[in-house]
Design brief:
- The structure is a single chain.
- The chain is an alpha+beta fold and 348 residues long.
- The chain has two domains: 118 residues, 2-Layer Sandwich (60s Ribosomal Protein L30, Chain: A); 192 residues, Alpha-Beta Complex (Phosphoribosyl-aminoimidazole Synthetase, Chain A, domain 2), CATH 3.90.650.
- The chain contains nine helices and 14 strands.
- β1 and β2 form a beta hairpin.
- α2 runs parallel beside α3 and α6 packs antiparallel against α9.
- It is globular.
- The protein starts with 11 loop residues before the first helix and ends in a 13-residue tail after the last strand.
């Protein structure tokens, strides 16, 4: 590719092409227990989980949240889905000259409150101010480190009692035939809230962002035991996540449309706008794969958490199919293809 387009940063197939050409081709990527080449949500190096993410959301304030909430929650979740307990975050800011000090105070308060809710400290950072027009108000980068959860070894022991499991960390390559797919709550809220508010469609009165730190919910799932893989369906949504799991794990996945949690207002917005809700990014949801005999226990555990009350078993992995298949409300089947990119740009 001779020029970079917005699709290269939006998740989906175009972003994967970008990563292979410009990142994996140019950088050393095979060091660590979970290396860069695995393309998981975080790396594992010397037993420490490490991740980084940059936030360019537009607008900075949106229904139910802001860039501060988003930047902390997103990084906490990327550490947590690897089976780690978040320890500390960094905060790097690129601020456009003339940015409102009042707005910056509000964003930093939001970051502090979200970090306190997640039980993690923001311990280091960096600030740059650029001239007017060189940035769109404010961009934030947060990096995070985490230590292996005290419940992960017991969780893996339960998995290994059920089937062969060569992994020491839950990751995108660990889903296997028979694993049950659990979605922690209604999908699409974050993307629809952002798009509606930005474009003035009016759905934001009924739909707010789902952005939230999920480390407590994820720890509850690990404590229940039997979890094989976890991932948050951010850019590219549920469709991208399931296709990544299917490709990396070499297993098919079938999900039922009627069992995918989806709020009526989100569904109405997607139908009106011609957007597939399965492709919309989320910032407060996690998808969990678990061995069949443990799935109900995991579901019960996360439903006991505030962020998981609407969790559902949505399907399962199967060696008898290829790719990702959706069983529709009408009884038909269709392939869920990996999206080219996120249909709603700049939502994180």
């Amino acid at each position: 590719m001779s020029k970079i387009t917005i699709a290269q940063g939006a998740g989906g197939e175009r972003m994967l092409e970008f990563i292979k050409e410009f990142v994996l081709n140019e950088l050393e990527h095979d060091s660590g227990e979970i290396p860069l080449s695995a393309l998981d949500d975080a790396a594992v190096v010397d037993g420490i989980v490490f991740t980084t993410d940059s936030y360019t959301v537009k607008p900075l304030f949106f229904p139910g949240g802001d860039i501060g909430l988003l930047s902390v929650a997103g990084t906490v979740n990327d550490v947590s889905v690897m089976g780690a307990r978040p320890l500390a975050l960094s905060c790097g800011m690129i601020i456009e000259e003339g940015f409102s000090g009042e707005d910056l105070h509000a964003i930093m308060r939001s970051m502090g409150a979200t970090a306190k809710r997640a039980g993690v400290g923001i311990v280091t950072g960096d600030t740059k101010v650029v001239e007017r027009g060189a940035a769109d108000g404010l961009f934030i980068n947060t990096s995070g480190i985490g230590r292996r959860s005290e419940y992960l070894d017991g969780n893996i022991k339960r998995v290994r009692a059920s089937r062969d499991y060569p992994w020491n960390w839950p990751n995108d390559s660990a889903v296997a035939d028979g694993d049950v797919i659990i979605v922690s709550g209604p999908i699409g809220n974050h993307g629809v809230a952002l798009l509606s508010f930005r474009e003035g469609y009016g759905f934001e009165t009924a739909v707010k962002t789902d952005a939230a730190p999920l480390n407590s919910l994820i720890e509850a799932a690990l404590r229940a035991g039997g979890v094989t893989a976890m991932k948050d369906p951010t850019r590219g949504g549920l469709a991208n996540l399931l296709n990544e799991w299917a490709e990396k794990s070499s297993v098919g996945i079938a999900v039922r449309e009627e069992d995918i949690p989806l709020e009526p207002a989100v569904l109405s917005a997607c139908e009106m706008l011609g957007i597939d809700p399965l492709e919309i990014g989320n910032e407060g949801k996690v998808v969990i794969a678990a061995v069949p005999e443990a799935a109900e226990g995991v579901l019960k555990a996360i439903r006991a958490m505030p962020e998981g009350r609407s969790a559902q078993i949505a399907g399962k992995a199967s060696a008898d199919i290829e790719g990702v298949i959706l069983q529709t409300h009408t009884g038909g089947k269709r392939m869920i293809e990996p999206p080219v990119g996120d249909p709603v740009p700049r939502i994180c």
